Amino acid sequence: MTKTYQLVIDRLLDKTKQNISRFGDEFPHTSLNGSYQLNPNTNWTNGFWSGILWLSYQYSKDQDFYKAAVRTTDLMRERLERNHGLDTHDIGFLYTPSVVAQAMIEGGANVKAEGLRAADRLMKRYREDIGIIQAWGPLKDSTQGGRIIIDCLMNMPLLFWASEQTGNRRYKNVATQFVELARRYLMRGDDSSYHTFYFNQDNGQPIGGATQQGYQDGSTWTRGQAWAIYGFALAYHYTKDPAHLETSLRATRYFIKHLPSNKVAYWDFDAPINADIKPDSSASAIAACGFHELLDILPSEHPDRGSIEQVLTESMETLINDYQTPDDAEGLLDHGSYSVRENKSPDDFTIWGDYFFLEALLRLTKDYRGFWYEK
């Protein structure tokens, strides 16, 4: 399959090069009527476009990708200086594939300092009084103040990286505390996951799980389950806590068990299966990266290796054969969903789906790891 993956990567890089001139200084988010909706660096997803450019440069050493990656990353720095739209947990999504990616590829004290500034911005979301990283809204907001979400697992590598760069254990301690909180409250006894969970703002006591983008509060939103697979595996890389590895494996078993026959997830594992049910190719692209991460960790004799390897291969084959966009499309991976429940891009291409699709392909060819840790 390696040759097939390389051919697909070459095709995706050709499309990405065309997108450089299409997008200019704006950032793609999700598609509408077959074209990306662009924004002037105001969305939580903008780091993924920088990440695609850095991955493309890392693979090809093409200077066109390098120049575009530097330009978009400079724009991300400007946003950090303006503090525009950064009252969110998504700082890791914004700055790990952009500023931290540049630091990993190029080094340099100035670039690393910008990454540390981003980590400090994320630390402002930490509610020490109740021990959570608040997901959305102003701190102590009456409706959002006690809320965490499973997506935030993928923002913790920024804090782990900052701890490694500085020797300051506070970054790692806060990240580890969040991972543990997610393990205890976002993961359920049957190894499925809540999208979000609420805590009492006065005393930090748990209230209960809910959803924002899933089918219903008790259902399993598949992208959230994919964040759990990948996020807990990455946490294990930094903490070496066997509970984090086991949680990733348990989330993986649940994900695999509930996949349809083509091995690409629907948008929610509990949504009614009918002719109108939407897939979420981005969930399977994220999960593919998590599966590969697990295969890099697990010993050859581990009983889960065979099933993970098989589903990873079958899932990637379906994404390649049935979910790639046509040549003239701006996106790389079709049939992703942002939020079916809210009718936001329910069946479109998404910039995070594009990013993780490319990362998964690079993992399977040149053993790259994206930018969630330095190998």
TrEMBL record:
UniProt: substrate binding residues: 90, 151, 209, 211, 223, 227, 339
Keywords carried by this UniProt record: Hydrolase
GO MF, any single term: chondroitin hydrolase activity
Superkingdom in the source lineage: Bacteria
Active site: 90, 151
Keyword Cytoplasm: no
Protein name: Unsaturated chondroitin disaccharide hydrolase
Protein species of origin: Amphibacillus marinus
Phylogenetic classification of the source organism: Bacteria, Bacillati, Bacillota, Bacilli, Bacillales
